[in-house]
Automatic annotation (TrEMBL):
<dbReference type="InterPro" id="IPR004714">
    <property type="entry name" value="Cyt_oxidase_maturation_cbb3"/>
</dbReference>
<keyword id="KW-0812">Transmembrane</keyword>
<dbReference type="Pfam" id="PF03597">
    <property type="entry name" value="FixS"/>
</dbReference>
<keyword id="KW-1133">Transmembrane helix</keyword>
<protein>
    <submittedName>
        <fullName>Cytochrome oxidase maturation protein, cbb3-type</fullName>
    </submittedName>
</protein>
<feature type="transmembrane region" description="Helical">
    <location>
        <begin position="6"/>
        <end position="24"/>
    </location>
</feature>
<keyword id="KW-0472">Membrane</keyword>
């Protein structure tokens, strides 16, 4: 029973700390765009345009 007097306040304080951390991370934009960086790797549109321009330059020089 005496251990409950220590463990209950510690668990309440820990719950408030975890809750504050999640509130802080939500306010600072940590959860704004979860899928964007993962899809950004797959979208490689700029490099294909550069390759086409290089091919056109090679063809015009020949």
């Amino acid at each position: 029973m005496e251990s409950m007097f220590i463990l209950v306040p510690i668990s309440i304080i820990l719950a408030f700390i975890i809750g504050w951390f999640f509130w802080w991370s939500g306010k600072n934009g940590q959860f704004d765009d979860l899928e964007g960086p993962a899809h950004r790797i797959l979208m490689d549109d700029d490099s294909t345009e550069k390759l086409i321009e290089k091919d056109e330059d090679k063809e015009s020089k020949q």
